[in-house]
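[audit] Reproducing an earlier prediction to check determinism. Same input, same settings, fresh worker. If the tokens differ from the archived copy the diff job will pick it up downstream; this log only records the rerun itself.
[audit] input (138 residues):
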Amino acid sequence: MAQEAKPRICKECGRLLPIDAFEPNRYENGIPSVWRSECKECRKNAKPFPRISERKKREYVQNHPQPKIGEDFYCRICDRTITIQQNRDVNLDHDHTTGEIRGWICNRCNTGLGNFRDNISVLKRAIRWLQRTLMSLF
């Protein structure tokens, strides 16, 4: 379902901005349907994450090939085995501070780590949050 093109708050700077201050992130029938959560200005000024060097990526993939479509893949983070449907079902994870490769993980876990910005303190707080809320159910 397409998001309505109305003003929104930038998750980085907290300002309420018109939709044209954001970049489209997804299209449906050639029409923007989802916008990025950070405004164009914040994205432009953001310090880029170190990328995996092409040489290191080639070497890693040569020794640890990306699972192919139709193959089963076991993610060591979520402890799930998935059958690869699309190439983006698995991602080559890397440390966003050093650029060092950590290994293949499922897209869901890669997105989770990215949303937590690889911040161990935030992840620990999330764990405590889950533990407290789950404990309150019993």
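[audit] rerun output stored. Observation attached for the diff report: The first helix runs from residue 40 to 45.
[audit] end
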